């Protein structure tokens, strides 16, 4: 058996895609590597700088006592794990989104792998953007529905598929991210809602993992920014990125919420989140609503970076956000480029297949609100030579 796995691992390595887990020391938004180098962290999803904000943690801790510090929930939500902090967090989410309901999950991975199987049948169709996140792909795999993928952000193709299929489907779920995790570009939400209005079977499923906190007047995401919140049937947000916490949520109707509580396996068959973690999430949520300066600053430095890099990357890549790829092509080339950028003081990692399509290995730069304009200029001077 040893050689079975060794051979398969060698095949991964031969493609230049071998991965290891490295242990890093964090100081604010800096990373200290095992050989003692201190680098600016441009690989984190701490988009608003909340995870590296020491005073925020101090404020939160000062309000905690041993009886409120519950590090575990000891049960699933349907048994004894549904502490009142779940209700308070979900009520606040629903209030902010002006929706009937919200439902919190243990992670974005739980949300996507649980929701899609729960809301579809054998007579349903899922139509998903070619570049959606692995957790959505796995949700599709677990679903009884048929699935068709459309070319990234190609809404003409999407509409053709819907026009052809709608008559024989109970529901068609269109699945996309609002802000794409590896390309940093955005779905056309206006176009998507127009398709939805034309076909009553269509439900919109929008994963805003990289947009919540960052986009919209209150940081509720791209759908808030576009003024389209009421059009979205399943709006997914996650707490692991800008929120510096863990967990995820769906914004939906009260009926859908009740339906999910009764049918969604990744909600029913897993231990509820630790109450102290939910307390932190609610604390952060209320801070995020007011962090307009951090959002504006992030948008400013993002533009400084994506304008020149879009020119470098060519036609197919059009970042419009704090996530900016620098396309290298072959995996080895991405790895080499990452080393160069690291030598200059920036912790940037190569992203390789299968995370991104073959031939599009890249550096993935993610800016956070605690980066400065000087940081971005210095980074550009290393990359754009
Ligand atoms: C990170 C991510 C997820 C998974 O969320 P976790 O809470 O980390 O499990 C889901 N969807 C997208 C688009 C993501 O980027």
Q: Keywords, please?
A:
alpha/beta; four-stranded mixed β-sheet; globular
Question: How would you sum up this structure, described in words?
Answer:
The chain has 385 residues and is α/β, with parallel strands linked by helices. 42% of the residues lie in helices and 17% in strands. It has 15 helices and 14 strands. A seven-stranded mixed β-sheet has the order 4-10-9-8-7-5-6, sandwiched between helices. A four-stranded mixed β-sheet has the order 1-2-3-12. β2 (30-32) and β3 form a beta hairpin. It starts with a helix and ends with a helix. The model has no long low-confidence stretch (mean pLDDT 96). The protein binds pyridoxal-5'-phosphate.
Summarize it.
With about 375 residues, the protein is of the alpha/beta class. It has helices spanning about 1-15, 55-60, 75-80, 85-95, 110-120, 135-140, 155-165, 190-200, 220-225, 255-265, 265-270, 275-290, 290-315, 330-345, 375-385; strands at about 25, 30, 40, 100-105, 125-130, 145-150, 170-175, 200-205, 235-240, 250, 325-330, 345, 350, 360-365.
Widest beta sheet: strand line-up: 4-10-9-8-7-5-6
Span between N and C termini? 48 Å
Bound molecules: pyridoxal-5'-phosphate
Count up the helices.
15
Kindly state the percentage of residues in helix.
40-55%
Computed structural class: alpha/beta
The chain-level mean pLDDT equals 96
Shape, principal axes of CA atoms: globular
N to C succession of SSEs: HEEEHHHEHEHEHEHEHEEHHHHEHEEEH
Describe the biggest sheet? 7 strands, mixed
- Tell how many strands the DSSP assignment holds: 14
Round the Cα radius of gyration to an integer and report it.
Answer: 21 Å
**Low confidence ranges:** none
Strand content: 15-25%
């Amino acid at each position: 058996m040893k050689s079975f796995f060794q051979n398969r691992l060698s095949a991964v390595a031969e493609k230049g895609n071998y991965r290891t887990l490295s242990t890093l020391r964090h100081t604010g938004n800096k990373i200290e590597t095992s050989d003692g180098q201190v680098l600016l962290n441009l690989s984190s999803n701490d988009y608003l700088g909340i995870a590296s904000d020491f005073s925020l943690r101090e404020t939160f801790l000062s309000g905690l006592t041993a009886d409120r510090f519950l590090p575990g929930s000891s049960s699933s939500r349907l048994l004894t794990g549904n502490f009142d902090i779940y209700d308070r967090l979900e009520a606040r989410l629903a209030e902010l989104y002006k929706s009937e309901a919200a439902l919190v999950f243990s992670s974005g991975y739980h949300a996507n792998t649980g929701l899609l199987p729960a809301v579809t049948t054998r007579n349903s169709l899922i139509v998903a953007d070619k570049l959606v996140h692995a957790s959505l792909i796995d949700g599709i795999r677990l679903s009884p529905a048929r699935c068709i993928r459309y070319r990234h952000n190609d809404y003409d193709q999407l509409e053709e598929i819907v026009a052809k299929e709608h008559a024989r489907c109970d529901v068609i779920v269109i699945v996309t991210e609002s802000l794409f995790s590896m390309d940093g570009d955005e779905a056309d939400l206006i176009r998507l809602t127009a398709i939805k209005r034309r076909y009553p079977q269509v439900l919109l499923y929008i994963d805003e993992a990289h947009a919540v906190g960052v986009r919209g007047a209150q940081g509720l995401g791209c759908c808030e920014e576009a003024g389209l919140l009421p059009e979205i049937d399943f709006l997914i947000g996650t707490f692991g990125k800008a929120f510096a916490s863990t967990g995820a949520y769906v914004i939906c109707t009260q009926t859908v919420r009740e339906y999910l509580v009764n049918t969604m396996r990744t909600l029913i068959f897993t231990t509820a989140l630790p109450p102290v973690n939910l307390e932190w999430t609610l604390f952060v949520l209320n801070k995020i609503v007011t962090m307009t300066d951090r959002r504006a600053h992030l948008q400013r430095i993002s533009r400084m970076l994506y304008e020149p890099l879009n020119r470098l990357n060519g036609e197919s890549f059009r970042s419009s956000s704090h996530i900016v790829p620098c396309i290298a092509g072959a995996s080895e080339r991405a790895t080499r480029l990452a080393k160069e950028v690291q030598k200059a003081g920036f912790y940037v990692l190569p992203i390789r297949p299968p995370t991104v399509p073959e031939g599009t290995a890249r550096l993935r730069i993610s800016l956070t609100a605690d980066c400065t304009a000087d940081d971005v200029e210095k980074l550009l001077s290393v990359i754009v030579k």
